[in-house]
Amino acid sequence: xxxxxxxxLALTFKKLKGHGKLSESNIxxxxxxxxxxxxxxxVNYKVAKQFxxxxxxxxxxxxxxxxxxxxxxxxxxxxxxxxxxxGGEAEPLNLGGKAPHLFMMVGLQGSGKTTTSGKLALMLKRxxxxxxxxxxxxxxxxxxxxxxxxxxxxxVPVFDSDPAQDPVDICIQSLAGASxxxxxxxxxxxxxxxxxDLELMAQLxxxxxxxxxxxxxxxxxxxxxxxAVNVAQAFHEQLGLTGVVLTKVEGDARGGAxxxxxxxxxxxxxxxxxxxxxxxxxxxxxxxxxxxxxx
Length: 295
Ligand code: GDP
Description:
It comes from Desulfoferula mesophila. By secondary structure, this protein is of the alpha/beta class. The chain has 12 helices and 7 strands. It has a 7-stranded mixed β-sheet with strand order 2-3-1-4-5-6-7, sandwiched between helices. Helix 1 runs antiparallel to helix 2, helix 5 crosses helix 12 and helix 6 packs parallel to helix 7. The longest helix has 17 residues. The structure holds guanosine-5'-diphosphate (GDP). Guanosine-5'-diphosphate (GDP) binds next to helix 6.
């Protein structure tokens, strides 16, 4: 991720370093290039504009321009602001309060929701938790089988959902199943659609209002760039998301969704999917990513 952005910024800052002392126009020119690089990385237009304005505010000041290493100072400001843009601190999953902890996975079809439910179960299991998987995607019958298979692979119990049942009933009945199995984190894999629609949202709202999950995680495909950002905004308005899991980031050279989702929707990215394998799920660290972008 961020390969092109990283290369472009390196070039811009190399030029900036070549100036020695910096004038306001040197900084403006560099920031113009940063803005273009962000837009090419598919960062939301408004986000890029606000980002540059913020950096300019901080960079065009006596302190930076008079310092012995003004270009370094500008680069540091860009790094800090990139980190801020992606949410600043890493946001861990909320496992507070009394068990069982209820996690609801939502997202569009094909985003990687079912796979991510399995990955998340494995991650929690490795942390010493006892996860329980609940296939509540009756829309795509193969999804139930898919989750059962994943559960068997990682040896995590899966609720025996009946595709003819109402998803809300499946979720409610799964609580007793989880309790019988002695599980402390319940992961509800809900239905997706090819696009955000009223019927999908109504079903998710019904599940949400009956079960009050403590995490509502949107699984979004990084490769879809600004579409993922719009999906995050739409789901957040309807359901109140607590976090985003951005999938397929290893195949996303641009990184626009990772850079824009937080700023546009206010929802933090908590985890990233970095491959098809079940252990390819990682916490999202804005500071490390900002460091990587700037080399
Ligand atoms: P769902 O319709 O949202 O439940 O999507 P699935 O879980 O069936 O995933 C759709 C496809 O995306 C599958 O082929 C997954 O293996 C793949 N996938 C999910 N997460 C990742 C990821 O982080 N990286 C890659 N490369 N593929 C992923």
